[in-house]
Amino acid sequence: MPSSLPARSRSSREGLACLSKQISKLLNGQRRVSAEAAVAIERATDRIVSRSSLRPDLWPTGDLK
């Protein structure tokens, strides 16, 4: 059955579904945040969420160089 949404909307919906699955895996500990994403999240949250809390294997607490 064809969707009633335009192709662009279907593509956006599918992209959001994939993103939602990825975020769920991150929150459930099934997937690790990339180093780049950890830095971006730290910046976007004004360091409320630190890169070291997301990736302590890369940035041990106190080592934010």
Structure annotation, total helices: 3
Q: Which structural category do the helix and sheet elements fall into?
A: mainly alpha
Main beta-sheet strand count, sense and barrel state: none
Pick out the low-confidence regions: none
Percent helix range:
40-55%
Helix-strand topology string:
HHH
Assembly annotation: single chain
General description of the model:
- The chain is mainly α and 65 residues long.
- The chain is 54% helix and 0% strand.
- It contains 3 helices and no strands.
- It is elongated and about 45 Å long.
- The model has no long low-confidence stretch (mean pLDDT 78).
List the helices and strands and how they pair.
Layout: H1 7-27, H2 35-44, H3 51-54
Summary keywords:
65 residues
Condensed summary:
By secondary structure, this protein is an all-alpha fold. It has helices at residues 7-27, 35-44, 51-54. It has a domain at 33-65.
